[in-house]
Inverse folding.
């Protein structure tokens, strides 16, 4: 369970400094070459991803970006099921004012998994996604000042999850159940609830031969008065029949409103 | 610290070179051990698949008969199957009369290529599972163990194994058609020595694997195995035992696994949270425990979670 904690990041930086010293002693010519490189992603990205600069430009509005150990991504060390890798994102209490979370798998053919606005909810989300190959999994938390605070973990995967047809589309069964919702609400502390949702949807990526892209576009969680508790926008990599969890600053029943990219509506009520 | 780093690096380099040399010959070093009269075991390591062990983490074996050997499972690769067959033929001076594949997991059937196709049999659902999913399982094992797998392709056994008594070359056996570890699990019992090859229905001192498991069915299968009057039990993974401790251990772990995960699901926990559950001390000595427990969460938890969710109509 790689968890990107404060100690891990610190250890990484110290190890990096030691490696540089050893390299200087042993292989001076190559360090001289390395010194010519700009202070780029390779030295700043703790996960050393080749695609990170592109991720910032395409999916994080060009930054500014800070690697922040308070944004914690938990994934299993290896993807046992490439079609449904469980991911959990938590943000430490000391990082306040998080307005949006974006989830990105750098090396997936479609990197952006979802964006989440925890309107009256904790900056926490849990979901499953499809992975095509081993990749960093990132959570970027945007605070009020516009800075993206980024945490992440490497996921090892045999892959193939993005280019496989969904079970539902393969079997033609989904039409009867499309956009049906199941849910559960659990009390958490005095004033919070865990909401877990499952929405029936093939979530086709468009990358499997002959099957066009078809996925859920958005889900809103509302209280009984119709006030927004949370808003999630979802993209192709989210798993088929996605299961999502939220931590709401709310007790009592909730309403779900959403749609997929063909305009089919998703509507549900979940009680405790 | 700085001073030692290059030395550590040099030692690591030598270690890797040594491992690469051993692996380059791709010799599993298979040596059969006679565990009862005319009953032989190739014991696998209690590890996960690695490039060092080449997938040799499984127990396979054979029984001597006047018509040739009866082989139980063929191992993780073509090379394993070939080396196993050569070892058996050398040891017995006879050919292979019959091969039983216990179930459709890659470490148990990917050596099938080494054996004549008309000698191979398995339960019908095992044959079907190898036919449909065997190539994917082989591809995944390639990724984990590398060159050991060269030339390996999935071969589904040509014949159905039929439950009940069967005599091969004068040796009386009993085949048991069970399920739970996978959709079809074959156990083989030798009447003369009262040896039970339990396949992966029984693990011992190693955490059970659950990618295709039905825990309820598996527990009933263990009840049936426990009724058999065996003197020696060969688990799919782990050391041979002469009593029921391996059955009891497998049962206790599966019961705990089911109860713990159902409890987590009822509290609304997510899979990543369920993976953090502390495994009880009684299982701490099982090999590859944490890895297998985390894999089991991925296998078993989604269905348990769905049982806690209610339909939420508009």
């Amino acid at each position: 369970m790689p968890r990107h904690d404060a100690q891990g990041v610190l250890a990484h930086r110290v190890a990096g400094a030691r490696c540089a010293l050893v390299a200087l002693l042993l292989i001076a010519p190559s360090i001289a070459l390395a010194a010519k490189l700009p202070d780029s992603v390779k030295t700043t990205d703790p996960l050393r991803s080749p695609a990170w600069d592109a991720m910032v430009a395409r999916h994080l509005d060009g930054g500014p970006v800070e690697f922040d150990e308070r944004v914690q991504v938990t994934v299993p060390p290896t993807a046992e099921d490439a079609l449904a890798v469980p991911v959990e994102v938590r943000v430490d209490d000391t990082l306040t004012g998080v307005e949006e979370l974006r989830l990105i798998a750098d090396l997936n053919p479609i990197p952006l998994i979802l964006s989440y606005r925890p309107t009256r909810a904790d900056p926490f989300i849990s979901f499953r996604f499809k992975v095509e190959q081993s990749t960093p999994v990132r959570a970027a938390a945007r605070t009020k000042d516009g800075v993206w605070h980024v945490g992440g973990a490497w996921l090892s995967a045999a892959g193939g999850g993005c280019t496989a047809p969904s079970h539902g589309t393969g079997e033609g069964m989904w039409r009867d159940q499309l956009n049906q919702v199941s849910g559960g609400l659990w009390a958490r502390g005095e004033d919070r609830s865990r909401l877990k949702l499952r929405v029936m949807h093939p979530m086709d990526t468009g990358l499997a031969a002959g099957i066009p892209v078809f996925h859920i576009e958005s889900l809103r969680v509302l209280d009984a008065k119709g006030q927004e508790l949370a808003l999630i926008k979802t993209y192709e990599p989210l798993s088929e029949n996605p299961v999502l969890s939220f931590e709401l600053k709310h007790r009592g029943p909730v309403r779900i409103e959403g749609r997929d990219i063909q305009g089919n509506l998703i509507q549900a009520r979940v009680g405790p | 610290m700085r001073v030692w780093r290059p030395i550590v690096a040099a030692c690591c380099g030598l270690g890797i070179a040594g491992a690469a040399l051993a692996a380059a010959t791709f010799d599993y070093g298979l040596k059969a051990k006679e565990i009862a009269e005319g009953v032989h075991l190739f014991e696998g390591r209690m590890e996960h698949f690695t490039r060092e062990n080449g997938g040799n983490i499984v127990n396979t074996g054979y029984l001597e008969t006047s018509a040739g050997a009866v082989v139980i499972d063929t191992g993780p690769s073509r090379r394993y199957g070939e080396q196993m067959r050569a070892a058996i033929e050398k040891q017995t001076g006879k050919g292979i009369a019959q091969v039983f594949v216990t179930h459709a997991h890659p470490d148990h059937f990917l050596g099938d290529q080494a054996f004549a196709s008309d000698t191979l049999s398995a339960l019908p659902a095992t044959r079907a599972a190898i036919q449909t999913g065997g190539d994917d399982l082989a591809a995944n094992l390639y990724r984990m163990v590398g060159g050991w797998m060269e030339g390996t392709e999935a071969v589904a056994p040509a014949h159905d194994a039929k439950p009940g008594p069967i005599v091969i070359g004068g040796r009386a056996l009993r085949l048991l058609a069970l399920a739970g570890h996978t959709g079809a699990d074959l156990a083989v019992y030798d009447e003369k020595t009262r040896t039970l090859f339990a396949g992966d229905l029984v693990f011992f001192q190693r955490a059970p694997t659950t990618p295709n498991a039905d825990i309820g069915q598996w527990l009933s299968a263990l009840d049936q195995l426990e009724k058999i009057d065996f003197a020696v039990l060969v688990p799919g993974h782990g050391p041979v035992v002469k009593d029921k401790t391996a059955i009891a251990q497998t049962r206790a772990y599966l019961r705990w696994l089911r109860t713990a995960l159902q409890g987590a699901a009822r509290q609304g926990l997510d899979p990543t949270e369920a993976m953090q559950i502390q495994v009880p001390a009684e299982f701490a000595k099982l090999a590859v425990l944490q890895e297998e427990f985390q894999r089991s969460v991925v296998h078993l938890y989604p269905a348990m979670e769905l049982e806690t969710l209610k339909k939420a109509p508009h």
